[in-house]
């Protein structure tokens, strides 16, 4: 009869047995690490997609808050990250355009006739979209206004994609090049430009309010 305990101790003391155990453990660690990287990368892509899309519609927070940490973690994919954000932001611009289009039909047209400004927006609208897509000015205002003024939808998609990709690629490249220093730099830039964006937004609101007041109360 074979002694199981002594037989097991024999294998445990065997170098071959120890090597096999270590190789299995290392293999499991590699599989777990691959799975964690895949899961994290997949979820980050989902977060960036949602953030980029909603920023073009209603989200007040810039998608750079996710782009910079994502690029720091996956530095070699800074181009793919910028492309993903640009595509999803353009998709959000299309949704915002439809909102503006129906907003004009359902509500704005009852209070104010914007047709007199439509020709001007059609003429300079592509340039306005490009500037809004690249600069920190709230892009959602530009995309909704494009629907209100019935801008050519192809121009909206084309210049939104170009402008957004240019902006996001600059951000991700600087993050790739500068590393963690980019976080502090972006905070400073965002704080400075936010002041001017608020001033421009107030001017636009006052301008529209004056038109409505002049049309209906004077």
Mean pLDDT: 76
Structural class: mainly alpha
Distance between the termini: 111 Å
Which overall shape is indicated by the principal axes computed on the Cα atoms? elongated
Q: Hey, roughly how much beta strand do the residues contain?
A: under 5%
**Order of helical and strand elements:** HHHHHHHH
Give helix % range: over 70%
Strand count, sense and closure of the main sheet? none
| Total DSSP E strands | 0
Calculate Rg over CA atoms. Answer: 27 Å
What count of domains describes the coordinates? 1
> Which stretches are poorly predicted, pLDDT < 50 over at least 5 residues?
none
Count of helical regions: 8
Helices, strands, pairings?
Elements: H1 4-12, H2 15-55, H3 64-73, H4 78-111, H5 115-134, H6 139-148, H7 153-178, H8 181-217
In short:
With 218 residues, this protein is mostly helical. The chain has one domain (34-217).
What does this structure look like?
The chain has helices at residues 4-12, 15-55, 64-73, 78-111, 115-134, 139-148, 153-178, 181-217. It is elongated, with a radius of gyration of 27 Å. The mean pLDDT is 76. The chain is mainly alpha-helical and 218 residues long. The chain starts with a helix and ends with a helix. It has one domain (34-217).
């Amino acid at each position: 009869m074979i002694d199981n305990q002594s037989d097991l101790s024999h294998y445990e003391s065997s170098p071959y047995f120890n090597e096999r155990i270590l190789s299995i453990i290392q293999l499991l660690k590699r599989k777990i690490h691959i799975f964690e990287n895949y899961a994290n990368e997949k979820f980050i892509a989902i977060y960036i997609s949602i953030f980029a899309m909603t920023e073009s519609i209603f989200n007040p927070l810039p998608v750079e808050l996710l782009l910079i940490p994502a690029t720091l973690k996956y530095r070699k994919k800074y181009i793919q990250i910028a492309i993903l954000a640009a595509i999803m932001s353009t998709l959000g611009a299309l949704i915002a355009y439809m909102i503006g289009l129906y907003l004009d039909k359902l509500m704005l047209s009852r209070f104010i006739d914007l047709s007199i400004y439509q020709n001007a927006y059609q003429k300079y609208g592509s340039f306005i979209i490009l500037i809004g897509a690249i600069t920190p000015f709230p892009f959602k205002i530009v995309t909704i206004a494009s629907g209100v003024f019935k801008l050519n939808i192809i121009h909206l998609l084309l210049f939104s994609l170009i402008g957004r990709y240019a902006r996001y690629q600059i951000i991700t490249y600087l993050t790739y090049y500068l590393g963690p220093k980019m976080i502090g730099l972006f905070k400073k830039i965002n704080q400075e430009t936010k002041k001017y964006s608020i001033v421009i937004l107030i001017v636009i609101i006052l301008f529209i309010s004056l038109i409505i007041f002049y049309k209906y109360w004077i």
